[in-house]
Amino acid sequence: MTPSRHYRIQSYCFNGVPMDAATAAGNCKAVTDAIRDIYAQEDMGSLVFEELYRCAYNLVLHGQGELLYTEMEKAMAAEVEGIRGSLSAVADDSGEFLQELLSKWHLHTKAVAAIRDIVKYMDRMFVVANGKASVHDLGVKIWRDSVVCSGDVMPRLVEAVRRERPAAEEPAGDVMAGVDKMLAELGDEVHRGVMDASSADE
Amino acid sequence: MWPPESSRLRGSAHTVDGNCESVSPPVHHPLVKYPKRSTRSSPIPNSPSPNKEIEIPSGGAPALHGRGGNLRRRRQIWRRNPIVEEKKRSITVAPFECAWDEEFRFREAGRGCITFEASAHNDVTLVFRQQPGSQHYHYKMDNSRHYTVILGSHRNKRLKIEVDGKTVVDVAGIGLCCSSSFQSYWISIYDGLISIGQGRHPNNNILFQWLDPDPNQNVQYVGLSSWDKHVGYRNISLMPSAPQNSILWSQIECAYVERDGARGRTRKEESKDGSDQRILANFLENWDLSDAMFVVGSEKKVVPAHKVVLSSCGDFPFNLMNGAVIELPSVSYPVLHSLLEFIYTSSTQISKWQLISLLQLSSQFKVKPLVMCCEEIIGCLKMNDTGPTSSENLQLSSGGSEAHQFDYYPFKTPLNTQKIEQFLVSGEHSDVNIYVNGHGLVAHAHKLILSLGSVIFDKMFTNGMKESSASSVFFEDVPVEAFFLLIQFMYSGQLKADSKEITPVLVELLLLSDQFGITVLQFECCKRIMEFLSEDTVCSVLRAVSSIPSCKLLEEACKRNFAEHFDYCTTACTDFHVDMTVTSEEKVLDAILTWCMEACDCLNWTFVHELLSTARPEMLFGGRLTAINTLLPLVRFPLMQLSLLQLMEKSNLAKIEVFRQLVAEAIEFSNAGLCMATNTSYKELQYISDGDNNGVIYHAVTASSPNSRYTDPKALVSKNYQGTCFAGPRLEGGKMCSWWMVDIGQDHQLMCNYYTLRQDGSTTFMRSWVLQGSMDGRSWTSLRVHEDDQTICQPGQFASWPITGPSALLPFQYFRVMLTGPATGVSNTWNLCICFLELYGYFR
After folding, report:
1. Count of C-beta atoms within a 10 Å radius of residue B727
2. Minimal Cα distance from A46: which residue of B?
3. Which domains, ranges and CATH numbers included, belong to chain B?
4. What residue ranges of chain A have pLDDT lower than 50?
5. Which tens digit of pLDDT belongs to each residue from B245-282?
6. Around Cβ B166, how many Cβ atoms within 10 Å?
7. Which residues of B touch A116 (CB under 8 A)?
8. Which residues are CB-contacts of B39 (< 8 A; sequence separation ≥ 6)?
9. What pTM was computed for the model?
10. Is the minimum CB–CB distance between B432 and chain A shorter than 8 Å?
11. Domain boundaries, chain A
12. What's the CATH number for A5-200?
């Protein structure tokens, strides 16, 4: 028991030393800013993965997983809300609407994948330990609830699918195939709901 | 070993020597919370207890579990979530039942490892399946796919493995159970490779290994089950599995080849989900991270490749040629594809008529294993010329001949591992420079190799952010030495730190491997740390790992070590290390004071004593003053030396009311002259179930005493059910009382932490009674007080209670159950109607 063997691992004494609120908020902001940039798309190259991953890692390590998760969820929801707004500006022409919806969906899935990479540590540790929805599932859920199933998109989607359908009876067009795939990913219920509704009135 | 004469058991109706106006029992802590069954925990009014003088602290300090009589109970203090940990701690599975829990789940389906301790007569049974079952689940009635491992089947004679109800392994004489003590086992499942071993450390002491030809990739939940006897489980931990047995490597590889098709598909789906670690085969003809390409055939098809992979298994002319393009106009694409497939996945197929071209191509680039493979097949074909038609596909495989390669290491034959390690040293073909801020360049590395080692690096280099296109990557907040070891591990698959003790670097590396998701390295670090864990290092490690959710096993091990360091020494080795005992308890006190004062450095209580000469406790402890009332009773003052106690009594610390009481009590105990345990050879007898064979009475006591019609002491310890068996009442000091007493023998002592009673055939149920212990048969200490306890309500019923608090640490020779109030019923309410008694704890 010589003193020399009692080393300390200074920088790693986390226990009982929670991150102070300012640092936590700063790290969170870095992540949420990045989420905004990811959705803006042009800016991916300017983001530094190492920095973002480290921010998220430190937050989870210091017991701020809950904060990170809720902030991330909020940021994603805000971006998706913006997308919904932009969709309502699109003309009612069915082909154009579906195309736009689909391209936004691809944008969203790509963004979710990038976000998941950044907060991977949270996905592996915090999400598993606390039984939360994984980032991927959360992305799907947000899209389903605030875009596809929202009051102003759903009727237009059903209408557009109904109009597109007969035309695409033989080989389903690219757009229709994409929409079909998207709906399938959102879950059986939505998929069946849209398909039933669009064929019901025929 | 046990002369019957030394052990006696008497019903009180027949003894006249019992003097119950006893000397005060030595210790009785007021802050002992009993489990739910007992209705109240205050001392009973009639009990001759010294607690009358001791008031329960008015601060209303929350009751805590006392520092219990065994290691496990005590450890709870150090835990954050006692409810979850409690489950982990100890589980008893009744016959034909099965315990499931979200905790008992592999993180990855089909792969995982469980370590546990078990105590049973036979049939320690573990079920592995996709979904958890119910409490009454039984593997014999399960229609879904599952694995069952039975240790000690056939009356503890054989080890059995069943797959979906069919016995596939049945071997005699290994992996048997032990009913007298807990044995450690581990079972690992990895893609159908089931390994069973003994001890705490997976992959050490393998007892048996078996590979399922049709692996069940879905098993994820572990059920702890039994057959016809109770099985006790404890210290259950789940962790990732990493098969390391090299002998089985070739077998595993065969299994991989067999179901290559199906596997390839699932791989792809997983990586679409983004959660999966890519393997080298995923990079075959993949543009990700590629830095070289072939232009092949007359159609000039472009095929991407990776220099570092190609160069590690052959001689590709990247250095001679300008750029990284190799043009092969005369080679057809299928031949090149075969070559690349062989390199990236270590096996390939080719049509017979293209074999010669493949041989030529592989000779051109000096891919020796493939050259040898081709030549061998050509030789075979020449021997029996009647062979397959020219269009038939031939299978080429590098085989699993190199036994040193482990599953987790991403590079297999034909890749040359030494060359890959060399690339890290030389920086040849490097495509990324790794910098650590504040230190500078750490390594000229290869994105592909880092990506294969860690999914985080993979994402970093491929998800389109800055690092994906940059040639330099900067890391912040990482310790350089450990970070380099991490990189080295990804190249070599080995941890190149050969220290024989826990160094800070090892702990840092553990944290880094967690940060970057390198499970294998994390596992390796955990293993090393556990191997060298000592009381000197345990605190540092514990502080570092307790924040990491994936290090539960290590945390558990640290806590165990921590608890043992304090606890075992103090309970079992009192005389052995008198000084150490004192130091330990003193240290506990110091630690509590330090924490309550929110001080940075560890304080000595004498220092606090000096502070208290001028300051009042409220000033010193501030908001933690109430905490000190809660924590101080956890210090086992009775174990300290009398001289020290007397010093403490006079110190200013006695200003703290709780402290004064505790010290006074301890001194009283010390003066009562009861000797503590005098030797170290305590045997642990753990309670498993009502009426089991683990207790002291079964273990050691034989009764002899004059019989009468209804009071047969032998019956009480015989384990046979007795319809009528009671101790009659008598007057002792003017009060009614009746009791049963057990004497476990002159040379024996028991630190009792659990006891079981059984009601006889009558309906006279005891309601208020007390279990007491004594060293001399005259002065009694109450171990557990029951007041209006409604537990027993059936004739012949078993009932068991734990003994908590400091009294569970005191060794006694005599134990007695004494009625303190009338039992139920109309007549004979002072009859103590029990026909069975069993005691558990640390026995000597």
Report:
1. 29
2. B466
3. 91-253 (2.60.120.200), 280-382 (3.30.710.10), 584-672 (no CATH), 683-843 (2.60.120.260)
4. 1-16, 168
5. 333 333 333 333 333 333 333 333 333 344 467 788 88
6. 8
7. 274
8. B787, B788, B789, B790
9. 0.53
10. no
11. 5-200
12. 1.20.1310.10
